Amino acid sequence: MNAPRPFCGADDLLVYTPHAALQCLDEVTMKQDSDAVNVPACFISSHEGFLGSIKTFIRDFVVTEIDVNGQQVNKAAATETSGCASSCKNSEPPAECKENNHSSVSHDADVSDFGVDVSLPSPGSFDLGVILGQSVSDELEQFVLTLKDEKPTKQELSLGSFTDKHHRANVHRAVRHRFPFLMTVTIQPEIRVREDPDYRELSQLVTEDEAEDFFRFIDAKVRGSSYTFGPDDNKEHRTAVHHFLSRRFGKLVETKSFSDQGSTAISVRLRERGRPKKRSAEERKEEDVYTAFTLCKENLETLEAISYMAAALGVLPSDFTYAGIKDKRAITYQSMVVKKVSPQRLKEKTAEFEKRGMRLSHVRSVSEPLRLGRLQGNHFDLVVRDLRPHGAGDAHPSGVGHTRLAALVKEAVENVKARGFVNYYGPQRFGSGQSIQSDRVGLALLKEDMVSAVRLFFTPEEGDDPQSQAKRHFLQTDNAKESLALMPLSKARERLMLRAMNRYGTGPDGCAQAWLSLPHSMRVFYPHAYCSRVWNEAVAHRLATLGHSARRGDLVWMQEGQNRTEDAGETNSTQIHVVTDQEEQGGVYTLGQVLLPMPGNTVKYPENAMGTWYQERLARDGLDNCRFRVGSLKLNLPGCYRPLLALPRNLSYQLHRAACGEGGGGGGGGDVTGERKQDSLTLTLSFDLDSSCYATICLREIMKCDL
Question: Which residue intervals make up region (Disordered) (predicted)?
């Protein structure tokens, strides 16, 4: 951990001086080439802080979602499960609970008139080894190899019997998506596969990749969608393709040729069926199955966990909905809802999921999916080990040193409990540790420089892992097809983009299609990362230049007591009030009520020096005339308002000697950072934060060091 940073501005008991501001700004300038540039060095309190190690064990960072009713989501599940995959057996509380002296587990935190080309999930979205069992999956792979013969074959392979109709539907879907050239046939309850003669015929007219993509498009049956084959300037050949599609799929699709930039291609659209067919009660019941559950995951990204569960259940990752993304290097509890999977079917897979570090509980039927942001916040249980004062190096205090350290911890925690912390976006928002951070990709997208954005996205990490090799090959050769062959199947984002560029090229239009191949939530992440970086810089500048009180021209909420999290902040600007001279003089508003806007096309900017700062900051990146819309990517950034300060709720802590609190090295993740230090102090913290607030930023304010 780095040395302590100077606070910006002045404590209530101190006089604010320009020198403190310059000290803070110098600090920011010095960090331009590191992750810390995205999290400036300004603090709200002036206590000394201390050093320590976080996430020594995975169990040292526990996040539990708080639902809209204010309940921790794992509480409802407590009667059904004893915790996550790493929890101790025989109802023993995990080590972090022993250290906290708790009696029970309490854990934290494009459109044309011919339809829209839809992005389809990559073949890697389905793991047939999980869905069918490894032995049957291997048999299927061998069967596929026998079909590579040039001659048509009538061979068949049985995949086994599946009594549950939802399971059968998932098997059909997964096999057809992974191998579009296969037909799946049910002879209840058995499913058999054989070669699809229509696929073989089409693959003789177009490329194999195009044939696969077309059959996936047909299987998806997304209303109003279209599929476009690659450029084809041979009219006779186009006629042959039109005739084949009309003969084999004429009731389902309509085709037409169109010219664009000197090339001609065939576009295929699903036929409109007039008014949608009225579904029977039974059909609606089958299609509108939603199952909610609480997911406990360990050392897994949220999207990684979803991808595995989707593969095991034979559904798409997009069939899962959740309220928020949770940390990877942690034990986390969160609510989820999956579509088209019954509670019984989900429960059948729980043992399988446990092997991958996931435990499901509180499984039940619900009537609708979850909405992103539908949570009150997160609860955190954190452990900071090997505490020592700043400037102590690796030396660990004892005796009198422990007494002084305890005083430093008490001062720090009490300060943050009373004053809060600067509400920065954490390093996770920017892709901490990556060669190219997400905000730089976002800036390129906002400038509509699609090629630069793609090349930034494909910047490899140091090392020779398969993903980096594939990225390096793409940047060196511009060959999307070869890079796709090198890219691991697990890297769905990269593979979707490479497939699009293999089809559309690597020029500006092809790169735009590559971005469009990603779901909207993934595309918008990058511009949001850029706007978050600007917000972080803005709050540091605001504190350094205008101090720790509400000033004329600052923005505040009109309505008292309103939830001021980012998610609630996307609101009409009429709810925003501009502080007047009289209000500044009368101290009507506090710093805790001051908001700063996240850049966008609907937000009001402060009517003081900060408004000018925003203009100059965006102009420096070439965004002085930015509309915060990228029409070609269907991105619109309205902006929002984020409170300058955040306040932890229900904050409590305990100090104890590590030798007494290790609990024999119980379950829950391995030793991540090395040997334990004997006779050092360990700090346990427990607190709640609003959604979109970062526990590492709160801890950074307490400790006064970069984490």
Answer: 82-104
pLDDT reading at 21 higher than 70: no
Strand partners, 331: 62, 298
- The span from the CA of 338 to the CA of 289, in Å, is 8
pLDDT of residue 105: 26
Token reading at 644 = 């300058």
Report the amino acid identity of residue 242.
H
CA distance 320 to 311: 12
Greatest mean pLDDT among 101-115, 507-521, 654-668, 682-696 lies in 682-696
Assigned token pair, 535: 């917000």
d(CA 258, CA 603): 41
Give the DSSP letter of residue 115.
B
Query: To which residue do tokens 């959740």 refer?
Result: 322
Place of tokens 């007219």: 205
**Nearest partner of 609 among 538, 519, 665, 698, judged by Cα:** 538
pLDDT for residue 329 is more than 80:
yes
Angle CA(308)–CA(355)–CA(336) in degrees, nearest 5? 45
- Whole-prediction pTM value? 0.69
H helix intervals, 231-290: 235-249, 281-287
Angle between helices 466-477 and 492-504 (to 10 degrees): 20
| Unique residue bearing structure tokens 């799929």 | 249
Q: Interior CA angle at 327 toward 517 and 43, to 5°?
A: 110
Q: Left (φ > 0), alpha (ψ -120 to 50) or beta: where does 415 sit?
A: alpha
Enter the tokens of residue 635: 């991105």
DSSP-derived pairing of the beta strands 290-298 and 320-322: unpaired
Q: From start to end of 190-261, where are the E strands?
A: 190-195, 225-228, 253-260
Average pLDDT, the chain: 79
| Residues comprising the chain, all counted | 707
- How far apart, in whole angstroms, are the C-alpha atoms of residue 179 and residue 625? 47
Query: pLDDT of 235-289, one tens digit each?
Result: 888 899 998 998 888 888 888 888 876 788 898 888 766 444 555 555 555 557 8
Ramachandran sector of residue 392 (left: φ over 0; alpha: ψ -120 to 50; beta: rest)? alpha
**Could you give the residue ranges of the DSSP H alpha helices within 265-301?**
281-287
Radius of gyration of the chain (CA): 28
Is the pLDDT reported for residue 570 higher than 80?
no
- List strand residue ranges (DSSP E) for 367-413, in order: 377-388
From CA 161, how far away is CA 375, in angstroms rounded? 41
> How many alpha carbons lie under 13 Å from residue 292 in its C-beta half-sphere?
17
What confidence score (pLDDT) does residue 361 get? Answer: 95
Distance CA 154, CA 3 (A): 71
Q: Where are the beta strands (DSSP E) in 315-376?
A: 320-322, 331-339, 358-366
Count of C-beta atoms within a 10 Å radius of residue 593: 19
Grouping H, G, I as helix, E, B as strand and the rest as coil, residue 154 is: coil
What is the greatest pairwise CA distance in the chain?
Answer: 90
pLDDT in tens, 57-69: 999 999 999 999 8
Distance set, CA 492 to CA 103, 119, 124, 307, 317 (Å) = 42, 12, 7, 9, 11
Catalytic residues: 327
CA–CA distance, 61 with 327 (Å, rounded to integer): 9
Please state whether the peptide bond connecting residue 189 to the residue before it is cis, i.e. omega within 30 degrees of 0.
yes
Is-contact 530 443, C-beta < 8 A? yes
Residue 557 near residue 516, CB atoms below 8 Å: no
589, 617, 451: which is closest to 531 by C-alpha?
617
